[in-house]
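Protein in question reproduced for absentees:

***
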Amino acid sequence: MKLFRPAWDSGSEKKVVRITEKLNGLNIMTCIKGKFYLLFLCCLICSVMNVDAKTWKCGVNGNNVIATLKDGILTISGTGEMENYRDKYRKHGVNSPWYRYRSKINRLDIQQGVTSIGSNAFTDCTGLTSITIPKDILLIGEGAFNGCIHLTTVFFNAINCEVPGFFPYPYVFLDCDELKNIYIGNNVTKIPNDIFTACNLTSITIPENVTSIGESAFSLCRRLSSINIPVSITSIGNNAFLNCESLTSISIPNNVKEIGNEAFKGCINLNSVRIAKSIKRINDGLFWGCTNLISITLPEGISTISRDAFTNCTSLISIILPESISGIEKDAFSNCTSLKSVTIPENVSVIYGNAFKNCYRLAMVQFNAVYCKLDDSVFSGCDALAEINIGNKVTYIPSGVFKNCLRLTSVTIPESVTSIGYGAFENCHRLAIVQFNAVNCVTVEKMFHSGFSDENTTLTTINIGNKVTRIPENIFSNCSGLTYVSIPESVYYIGDGAFEGCTGLTSLSIPESVTYIGDGAFSGCTGLTGVYIARNKFGIPDRFFVKELTSSDVFIPAGVTYIGNSAFSNCTGLTSITIPESSGIYSSSYRNNADNDYSPFYIGCNAFYGCNSLTFGKLKSIESLYIDGGVDPVVGYSDYYQAIPFHKYSTLSFTFHDKNELDINACVEIKADCKRIYPIQRTGDNYTFDIKGVDILTIRSIYPESSWHRHEYIIAINNLTFN
């Protein structure tokens, strides 16, 4: 450069030089004092001269990739991958070599051949307003453009790119607050994971060649209000649109085979969703917290609704579940506080805990699942659930399915049901009416079990359908509020404990069709005052009315062949019992004698034990008392216990009907408290015994060791009288 010598002004003690020169198009005017003007001028000239270009090695293999900064343009050239750099928040690693010049970079040129953009490579390049990511880029590191606060536009042309971001710093454009325009090239085949996380874009158009949207690709884009998903898309990754709070609608095309977990979680303004027919599973948390979603229709083909799929969709009023659904997982619809009704399809085989927890406006459930297993908290907190309709193909009502449904007042069990699980209606404290139509229900496990008290006090009415053939074991046990039940003529079987503990039951009529009554079927029914049993060819079962039957009279019909063990045990209110003229009495050892065609009457062990008010005057009408003639080979006699409370009587007498040519004196005795007692009087064939102080009276037959009649004959008696 040419230097100009200054001219001195005349007449001045201190000469002031004014120099005007145009250097590279720049007008410079300066004043320089005294003799220092040359030094100042040299510095000035240096400051306006062009800065030489800066060059750095930035490849993972050293000089395979070169960065050049010149005139505000940063050019990345070479072949292969760039080096990764640390971000400003980390202590380890190094910054990019151009980081100190970051404010002077106003353009970025990544040339063909470069295959990656390093982590944090262009962090805080605040002069960048637009970038182009070329088609050859296969990898973009985390934080590559974080803090580029003036970046407004991105042209994304990378055909098959990945972003291997790592939590908690998976972002590529974090704090790029002005980035609102993203253009995706027509040749791009996939949108990488995390690529546009937390950007401020408002809309995006995805071209037809794209087949997948990666995990968290648009998550936290809180201003994104619309997106066009083309038919070429086959998969949408986990969290793809997480917390896109401005997104109002989404349409999933039919080629999409999978939508990842929580893909639309937190899209609080999403109100319209169309799900592709190709989707087989609604994944975990897919619409979690979509608080503006009012309704959704799931297409046929979906088999599973996964955990938390619709949790906290507080505006969801209704949902149509397709018949293809087979499983509903834990918390799938929990806290859907506006949901009013739901239909469980026929093919649902499993529902996990809390599936509809705290849906406190849910008022109606149409339960059509033919055979379903579930946890007992499925409808926990559904305080408004007052109507449950069970479909006519349902065969199994699962354990605890309607537990704690406090507003439920009535329910109908359809004809198809064959099994009811434990506590199916547990703690339904307002349930008052049950219409039981199950034709052949085999298994019931305390369906009305009530958590702490094991008692249901509100159930007052049970209507049994006229096609019902079986009343299963324990089905209405401990329903203490039940006052009346009508058993139709179609019923042939009443299971063990079917009405056990129904203390409010006051009357009972058992039809002629009943051929089997299980042990303890009506035990503990302390309120019974009237019992009618129609003609019955079997008998009164063990523990039939055990505990405090208050009925004063029991009429046993003709055809009844036995009274089971403890059948009327402790029925303190029982004062009389009528046994038909044609009935006989025989021992427990004879009861199972299949070789004998004769069917005498049998009274089992403790049949009337504790019946302190019972009188046996009417037993005089019994035709005969049959005692098995079998002989125990060790002790010489066989035992059969007829436990009847005789302590209120003084004597017992009877007359032999048929001695069978036996020596009566040798073979008959009455035994009390394991002590033999003998007749105090005999008049012909009439025998009288002293039974004062006897609690348990046992009649035994004794045969001499030499008797050839052993095991062959029955001794018959009549006119059995207690005095």
